[in-house]
Amino acid sequence: MSTEKKAKNAAQTAKGKAKEAAGRAVGNESLEMEGRAEQAKGDAKQTVEKAKDTFKH
Hints:
Elements: H1 3-26, H2 29-56
């Protein structure tokens, strides 16, 4: 996995975690769900990149 893509995906996951925590703190379910979705998207991208790396070697 390229370092740049890995960093972007990790940042997206971290951003999602922050949104989820903020939503939970203020009682905003919509923001909390948005954060969970963003985390899932970042995790999925990381999984795809890892699979690509596996098949390259």
